[in-house]
Amino acid sequence: DQASKRRMLELLEKLKGGGMGIVIASHDPDLFLSLQDERLQLSRGRLTNLQPREKIEGVDWINHRRRSPGA
Question: Hey, CA dihedral for 47, 53, 55, 59, is it positive or negative?
């Protein structure tokens, strides 16, 4: 639920703010956008994409293309 997601993000943000490195595996990577310095994408166990934070927003990571604004 939304309240649980918010609490989890708050906890992870505190840990990151304290200098802890965090690795998250998720089928909903945009949920963790505020925590990401880099995003790695795997397909069939192989690295298929690595992007720094400034290139993450606006990318459709499922289809590997830029999203149109407002999408």
Answer: positive
